[in-house]
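Moderator note: this is an archived Q&A kept for reference. The question asked for a predicted structure of one protein chain; the sequence and the answer are reproduced below.
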Amino acid sequence: MELAQSLDQRRLAYAEYQRETPPPSLGNSLECPANSPVQTTPADRRQIRGVSASAGRVHGAAGVISGPEEFARFQAGEVLIARATTPVWSSFFAIAGAVVTDSGGILSHAATAAREYRVPCVVGTKTETQGFRDGELMLVDGHQGTVTALV
């Protein structure tokens, strides 16, 4: 009898859960703050917003990489700026100061690899990183999901 009662309780619970509507996202980290356009801060710095994918704050020179043909240019400690990353890019996470990508969310390759390597990461900036130049000094705030070009 106990098994039959347990099964009945589980069926009732299952039916209740099926009637619930799941939330559109899990937690605040998935909510990208409007992917706002380039903003100006008081010191005339360009700042963009994305999704906070891995915590930490880092200052460093930008390493804008658009594909495998440019991999050799990337230097240790630079902020990797790319449209997206794939497993081919994984070796960069061991040497990057931070990672910023135009696409992706908290489960993207860039986000997952950055957390594994404990590298600050901001993803989902849309096309906002296209204004950054190679070698430009950057501040990546993985806590807030912001990337600031320092003048």
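Archived answer notes: The beta strands are 39-40, 46-49, 51-54, 57-64, 79-82, 98-101, 121-123, 137-141, 146-149.
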